[in-house]
Known about the structure:
Helix content is 0%, strand content 42%. With 205 residues, the chain is mainly beta.
Amino acid sequence: MLVGAGTTDGAGxxxxxxxxxxxxxxxxxxxxxxxxxxxxxxxxxxxxxxxxLLRFGERALLILSITNPAPDSRPSHxxxxxxxxxxxxxxxEHLVRLDGGPDFYAPAAVIAPDxxxxxxxxxPEDPPDEASSTRDWAGALTxxxxxxxxxxxxxxxxxxxxxxxxxxxxxxxxxTALRTPLQVPVSDQFELLASFTSVGESTVG
Length: 205
């Protein structure tokens, strides 16, 4: 079992615990430490939470949720680290910010019957206050996304294909040069598909 934690010096760490009966557990050592990362730009914070390990043949993807440092200590964002596992240690290769957060946090991975890796994140509610304490709900789950690894180690994430069943017959098409903010009519629930063509610019988005 993998457990997210933090060290006494304020760095994230992933620990291995082992059990033969799923009742008594013993610490097996560190699976990944902050010092192992080739790039720690997005991995700061006093604790790594909710580790998820996805396997793709001989390669693996480790997903971690990052908290803000004290005194805030609120959910911040999610990172994904591709690499390999050797002797119960994760050997990282590439690190990316999986989602900006905090409205996608502590995701859980499941394997679909067809082998796809599906990821659903948590949408936390606003900071607790008097009004929220009387509600009979807390947070929500995101729509599922499919996670995969490219041969060179890059990560790909796309909405699950099943979401297409939720589409209605409404369509809206617009071609325009984006010199000003684009106004698109939307409803309470909508899906936006856009294709961008760069004209004389090095970046789009």
